[in-house]
Write a structure and sequence with these properties.
The protein is mainly alpha-helical. It has helices spanning 3-29, 34-48, 61-68, 72-84, 103-111, 119-143, 146-160, 165-181, 186-196, 199-209, 215-230, 233-261; strands at 88-91, 95-98. It has a two-stranded antiparallel sheet. The longest helix has 29 residues, at 233-261.
């Protein structure tokens, strides 16, 4: 095992409790009240459409509540939730402001609204990955820097050293995240990071993997890494498509089994 791979495993183990705490905070950040959720959605839409520009001050509470068609209490809940995920910032004696935003911020905020995933949404998420992710892997094969390739190789080697499904799950996600970052497309990276690799996916995929690590997954990861290292775009595309198709079959089978058991 290389020193870099060893550090990857150590960092992954140390980050486990921190990640769980963060996910609990995000669950708390999403208000259950329908009016509060609607206010969150409308504020994000206003930001995305440019009505509430980055670093600008939101209208007064009474005016904004009227504009959004919600009570002031529901608006306060929405603002508190958006503050927790870094979209808004309240300044004492001054008001509430939109923070400096990137595409990832808005997408990440939307992804925290509902961290529950059922059979239908699990399969839709898997379909999304099958459509989008192979393109990111092809881009990575054509544009990854030497440093990014070393990072991808180190994460892969670390994953080969563990037989713990929970640790492997985290390294699996780390590998896919590193590959999509190597695509060089910031929007694609933001979408995949926030939607495809979020907390709901982690919980669902941990159920699918439990209690084993598919040997097929290990082999396909190796092929992905080799394709990126050698710049073999055709191998990257073929392996990515096969890898995600097999994962989709696993997800479908897992939820079919759960349906039969119930």
């Amino acid at each position: 095992m290389t020193n870099l791979s060893a550090r990857v495993i150590l960092n992954r183990t140390q980050r486990g409790s921190t990640t769980m705490a963060k996910e609990r905070s995000l669950v708390k950040a999403a208000p259950a009240d329908t009016a509060s959720r609607r206010a969150m959605t409308l504020i994000r839409q206003g930001i995305a459409e440019g009505r509430f520009a980055p670093l600008s001050q939101l209208p007064r509470e009474i005016d904004l509540a009227g504009e959004l068609g919600v009570s002031r209490g529901a608006l306060r809940e929405a603002i508190r939730a958006l503050e927790l995920v870094g979209i808004l910032e309240s300044r004492h004696g001054s008001g509430t402001y939109v923070t400096g935003l990137t595409a990832a911020d808005i997408i990440r905020s939307a992804a925290t609204d509902n961290l529950h995933i059922d059979a239908t949404s699990a399969l839709e998420l898997m379909e999304f990955r099958r459509v989008v992710e192979p393109g990111s892997i092809v881009l990575a094969a054509g544009s990854a820097s030497p440093e990014q390739i070393r990072e991808i190789r180190a994460i892969y080697e670390a994953s080969e050293q563990t037989d713990d499904p929970a640790v492997y799950l985290e390294l699996d996600n780390d590998l896919h995240r590193a590959i999509v970052r190597a695509s060089g497309n910031s929007i694609l990276t933001s979408v995949m990071e926030s939607v495809a690799y979020g907390a709901a996916w982690d919980r669902m995929w941990s159920l699918v993997l439990r209690p084993t690590i598919p040997e097929r997954t290990r082999r396909e990861h190796e092929s992905l890494v080799v394709a990126i290292e050698t710049g073999d775009v055709q191998l990257a595309l073929a392996t990515a498509q096969a890898h995600l198709a097999a994962a989709q079959r696993q997800v479908r089978a897992r939820f079919d089994d759960a349906s039969e058991e119930s």
